[in-house]
Amino acid sequence: MTTSHYIAGRWVEGQGSDCISVSEPALGLPFAELMAASVAQVDQAVAAARDALPAWKKVSASTRAAFLRGFAEQLGQRREELITLQMRNNGKPRHEAEIDLDDAVATFAYYAELAEQLPSKNRDVPLAAAGFTARTRLEPVGVVGLIVPWNFPLVTSAWKLAPALAAGCTVVLKPSEVTPLIEQTYGQIADALGLPAGVLNIVNGKAETGAALSSHSGLDKLSFTGSNNVGSQVMRSASAQCRPVTLELGGKSAIVVFDDCDPDQAVEWIVAGITWNAGQMCSATSRLLVQDGIADVLLPRLQAALQKLRVGNPLTEEVDMGPLTSQAQWLKVASYFATAREEGLHCLTGGQALDREGWFVSPTLYADVPKDSRLWTEEIFGPVLCARRFATEEQAIAEANDSRFGLVATVCSGDLERAERVADALEVGHVWINSVQAVFVETSWGGTKGSGIGRELGPWGLSAYQSVKHVTRCLG
């Protein structure tokens, strides 16, 4: 693939020094290559977005909504192609790839509706003081850089791209070098819809490309989803420009199971929270806190459920969990298995890479994990679950909150009043009660503590790409 970058409405060849090898994780083999964008091409993409901004800002909200609906419709028309690509490049089982596609479609449709509901550019503001009038305007923040991860391509980019376009911003999108192919779809759709040149630009590359974009003086905002290590670098780059950022970073989330919960239902919620996308989720509920009264019943059932999961190639088998998406991630998870052996953790099931082609690991459960274990405190990004017991509600809340992360949590209890009370006490951005991790576009997404800055989805996602201007006039 030579023309893998979409700049100023044209597909161009990469001129960077890096060759990106795109792999099929179920086989552990590459199936495509593309040349990265050069720093000069990042400059060109930002310049194109800057040139397109004045006209795009003036486009009516209804016109922007029509483009967003066009994205939703075009994604739906490419459904089978995109589902297959998610399965092949990410290793996702079919049912997960289908949900990803539906999520992206719903995101564009939702922000099309929000775009149409945008208030008029001017809104009067009542003042207590006499002799003055005031009005407020919501304006697009400007040119935004969007850097997205490899675990949910197409989805995470939709969460950023749709509200940015709805707000009237122009965009430079940098996909992950691990999964760069599926985001090319957005450029193809832009061509098909006649989106004005420069409104959407896509540059592919590795760290050099990401650094060039995140430090670029031509951006007005940067939105990044990824690891804390890279997120801190992005924030440093933004601080040099005094530029606003949205950061959606890591997690080490808790799932709290009280002894009045149905154990079979709890097992379903626990398994989904740690094995969806092979555990490669910032929201993975990888810390299981289980109350003493149910632990001896729950843990054996959970062990059996994990052992029954079908792990394999989603393109050739009916599976519950696919491979890890990259060799680097496979090696990282394997290193945590080694750490667990060194720490003498009690492994109920799993704890090893699978002896087959591709980047597969076994769903894993460790019991009675000490609070100072690296596996309890660090984000692993794989299907590795650590369990601890607790006695009281107060202890559960304290241990769940004892983390440098604060993205999500799940509460499982037959006492809904208690479940709501615990949800309110948890220091996170999103809590599920007696549920799998259902994420709806109308709700917010983001965390507290080290899990990031700002919110995506819902009206909060749109406001992240808007700036507020007030105009005050003296009547005298």
Automatic annotation (TrEMBL):
In terms of InterPro entries, this protein maps to: Ald_DH/histidinol_DH (IPR016161), Ald_DH_C (IPR016163), Ald_DH_CS_GLU (IPR029510), Ald_DH_N (IPR016162), Aldehyde_DH_dom (IPR015590)
Q: Which SUPFAM superfamilies does UniProt cross-reference here?
A: ALDH-like
Q: Which PROSITE patterns does its entry note? A: ALDEHYDE_DEHYDR_GLU
Q: Name one GO molecular function term.
A: oxidoreductase activity, acting on the aldehyde or oxo group of donors, NAD or NADP as acceptor
PANTHER family reported in the protein's UniProt record: ALDEHYDE DEHYDROGENASE, ALDEHYDE DEHYDROGENASE-RELATED
Alphabetically list the UniProt keywords.
Oxidoreductase
What family does this belong to?
Belongs to the aldehyde dehydrogenase family.
Q: Where is the Aldehyde dehydrogenase domain?
A: 11-471
- Check the record and name the Pfam families matching this protein: Aldedh
Q: What is this protein called?
A: Aldehyde dehydrogenase family protein
Q: Kindly identify the residues recorded as the active site.
A: E248
